[in-house]
Amino acid sequence: MAHKKTTVEASNVEQTVTVSEAFFDKNKKTLLYAFIALIAIIGGYFLYNNYVVEPREAKANDLIFKGQEYFAADNYEMALNGDGQGYIGFLNIAKEYGSTKAGNLAQLYAGISYAKLGKAQEAVECLKDFDDCDDEMVSPAALGALGNCYADLEQFDKAAATLVKAAEKANNNSLSPMFLMAAGQIYEAQGNIDKALDCYQTIKEEYINSMQYAEVDKYIEKISK
User: Fold this and answer.
1) Which of 2, 52, 96, 134 has its CA 20 to 30 A from that of 209?
2) Helix, coil or strand: residue 165
3) Domains assigned to the chain
4) pTM of the full structure
């Protein structure tokens, strides 16, 4: 009985091998083309990454460095539009290298530069096009800047909501209470006392190590009377 069972199993194995061989013979061209295509895709990815993505990122980084120098020197006009001596400006870096991290950062710098020049509407357009990144300080700061620009445009509902969103995204003692305080004051000026109080209470309860914590009580007392 055991011998018969072994014979049957051997027969099944042989049949499986035969079927597999037949399948491969019938489909070997398709399988070969699929394998070649897979190799081409993998190779293409590495080629694109090594010879297109990385060089573009490096180039954008080189370009943005000069812009950061102009920005730090408060030369926002030149930071935005270039100096005619090789530096093309944040606007052009963002346009030509928008797919890179440095190009995306140039978009943020352009928005803040416009804000510094008092051009709030242009700043809003740039800041809205900034793609969220993983940096826990940069992304909330970009939202905070957008909120401030909305306030400059007297779009106070958008301003306060954006500042609260920025505070939630940051969730730290440096940025969050600053944004919440700004949002609270906007709500307060609009007569929206409940939302203003929510902002101030959040500072008091969640950000006790912040600078704003030391003065938030007076804001709470003022609108709680």
Assistant:
1) 134
2) helix
3) 30-117 (no CATH), 132-225 (1.25.40.10)
4) 0.74
